[in-house]
Amino acid sequence: MNGIEIRELEAFLVLARELHFGRAGERLYVSQSRVSQLLRSLEHRVGGRLVDRTSRRVRLTPLGERFLDELTPAYAALRASLDNARAAARGTSGTLRVGFQGTVDDHLADALACFAARCPDAAVELVEVPLSDPFGPLRRGELDAAVVLLPVREDDLALGPVFSREPQTLAVSARHPFASRAELSAEDLADAPLIGVCAPAPAYWRRAQAPERTPGGRPVPAGPEVNTLQEGLSLAAAGRGGMLLCRSTAAYHAGRRAVAFVPVAGLPDSALGLVRPRGPAAPLVERFARAVADSLP
């Protein structure tokens, strides 16, 4: 660009809008003579007059009109590129891909709202993570972070803030004997098949979602295994077994007339945690983790 300076272009653009050297200087916080100096330098680089100036008026020459038409979008694109680069350097722009299991409950919704307020230039893509593959999308690079059911014991994944600790609920057919109960004991799970989760979910994780024994040591009958929450609820409605859910997920699906949701006492609370690949976190992931932590009650 033959040494051209941004300040010269800015002076020309402001002068073209104001058509007055004094007002242009005020807009640029420089003197009127400095505006004239910048314009002369730009005209020297261009090789022609861009502005006609008389004692009564200032106007663009035909060359100046053409230069203004071509410069305006190019300058806007340059400014946008600079702003985007600054935002990226601060970690406040770009796209954050967040996975979730089951439903976007109030806790996650609050964290997303907090993140959006702090990083308004960032976009968030929400992707449902199958129950049967809680960690696969992270390992395949499909997600930047995921909100999944605990526990997490993967060496290559890091667990961030833990939230949504809630009592567990059993989803059963509305025709099941349990459906009329106000509450179940964990020992009652020995009296009905429990819907489990398919591989490739790790065995320890699958056992946590569908325990093989009650706290008292009684064996829990194994029901069918599913890939998704919707599959599990459909099988529960069909009377194929019961499925353990956290309270907020049960409340979200409470409108299903074919399914009853009965609280279960005596089981560890269900919990969700923010998981990401181990190692230095990307700026947006760090900011989202902070939003999750700050939105906790």
What can you see in these coordinates?
The chain is α/β, with parallel strands linked by helices and 297 residues long. The protein has three domains: 6-90, Winged helix-like DNA-binding domain superfamily/Winged helix DNA-binding domain (Arc Repressor Mutant, subunit A), CATH 1.10.10.10; 93-164 and 272-295, Periplasmic binding protein-like II (D-Maltodextrin-Binding Protein, domain 2, 3-Layer(aba) Sandwich), CATH 3.40.190.10; 168-268, D-Maltodextrin-Binding Protein, domain 2 (3-Layer(aba) Sandwich). Helices cover 39% and strands 25% of the residues. The chain contains ten helices and 13 strands. It has helices spanning 6-18, 21-28, 32-46, 62-90, 106-118, 136-139, 203-209, 229-237, 247-252, 283-295; strands at 51-53, 58-60, 93-100, 121-128, 145-149, 157-166, 168-173, 184-185, 194-197, 222-226, 243-246, 259-265, 270-277. The chain has a five-stranded mixed beta sheet. It has a four-stranded mixed beta sheet with strand order 8-12-7-11. Strand 9 (194-197), helix 7 and strand 10 (222-226) form a beta-alpha-beta unit. The chain starts with 5 loop residues before the first helix and ends with a helix. This is LysR family transcriptional regulator. Keywords: DNA-binding, Transcription, Transcription regulation. Pfam families: HTH_1, LysR_substrate.
